Amino acid sequence: MGVNVIKYDVVIAGSGIAGASVAYFLSRKGFKVLFTDVKPFERAGDKPCGDAMGKHHFDELGIEYPKGEELEGLVKAIDIYSPSEEIRYRVTGEGFEVNRVEFTKRFIRLAQNKGAEYLPEVQVRKLLFKNGRVIGASLWSRSRGEWEVEADLVIDATGMSRALLRQLPKDWPIRDDLRPQDMNIAYREIRKLKEPVEEPEILRIYVSQEKAPGGYWWFFPYSFKDGVVNVGLGVQGGMGHPFPKDLLYTKVLNSPIFEGSEIIEAGGAAVPTRRPINTLVWEGIAAVGDAAYTVNPIHGGGKGSAMLSSWCMAEAVEEAANSGGLTTEALWGANKCFIDRYGAKQAALDIFRVFLQRLSDKDLDDGMRRKLIKEEDLNTVSLHGDLELSTVEKAMRLLSGLRRPTLLFKLKTVADYMGKIKEHYRKFPEDPSGLNSWLTDLQRIYDDFLKKL
Ligand code: FDA
Q: For residues 40 and 57, what is the distance between their CA atoms, to the nearest angstrom?
């Protein structure tokens, strides 16, 4: 490396919500940070999205609620419809429809105000290695060409592209490639309808294997913008399902309420829907956000948990710096922080996701009609990743659901394995040396579960 190479504490590739927030969390602690994005500032965080965020994410991280240009609507509840649309569960909980670009810009500006260096329209290209560790990266821009920077830690926040992680040796546990079946491919449009939406503060999710195999379609109004809705559809990847755009057009947008509506924006993208990455840190490199699979496997919301992974990363970097350096061992707390606050629950939800994706529309309708899973259960599942069916309730539901006993038994298996996975995450190794055997045991739990299902 040349004498003019600039050295940073942390270099971050990608300035979506994960990259921008980790840049802010680190720079406010006084670290020397560089963060870049291939996109210009005007398009920061502009990945196709449903734009919904629960209020609790902001409370947990002590972050100001979105307001002004960042806020496009308020959310009071989510209605979940069964495949026949005859049964509806209402899950209450406050949240926001955000303007994803303005929201991301907030963190970019905050990081810059704390001294972080932000380079839009700059691509992070090649990782630089020395003695089995990542020690920097090469950057490229149209105006400047290619140059190198050094860092104690390089963070991949490039979302699903995982531009840096993909360059790592296959046997580094942080590499952890994504299986196509563990992602959802989604397409969404923002449309202005002819008529205002009734109850615009209620988001709607429609579960249907026929319309959205292995996923769902959604209708999210922006309550501050009369008649403007985010309507989209996601399908499970790797299964040979039709394109989500085709399904949205043939199964959803032909409904009368979209007649004469105007397209404001359109676009598709993929989202990971699995348990978290094996480890957030390894030998000079780290991952946050979609690159680290921090998304909720059931509903695909990932902005809040991306920020949480960023927060955990910044806490770990501070702790490691205070204890002598950013080694894998010293940064290990990032894993513990994320798993305790979200990752263990996320892994339990991954089990639930695998189960849901195998249900037929008839099972889904019957299950919801008979309340095999009740609204309260759904709340507990989504808040804590527990599917706890109390003994009395179990018996009652067994009686009422006798016509579908297999489904109930499967549900019991699912609840058991959700508990087992959470328990296993509670035993996440204290240091990197225990990771391999922990991962082997984790795989065994998944394999057993799939056999029993
Ligand atoms: P993100 O992909 O946003 O950012 C990565 C950035 O890295 C990009 O800006 C990209 O330009 C940049 N980049 C890539 N390679 C680079 C390189 N080599 N060098 C420099 N920069 C590079 N979530 C939610 O909370 N609520 C919701 O309603 C929805 N709905 C939804 C709908 C659909 C259709 C999808 C596809 C996804 C959602 N999500 C969601 C998920 C949510 O959009 C997602 O979890 C976050 O945007 C992830 O943010 P990241 O910053 O991790 O990645």
A: 27
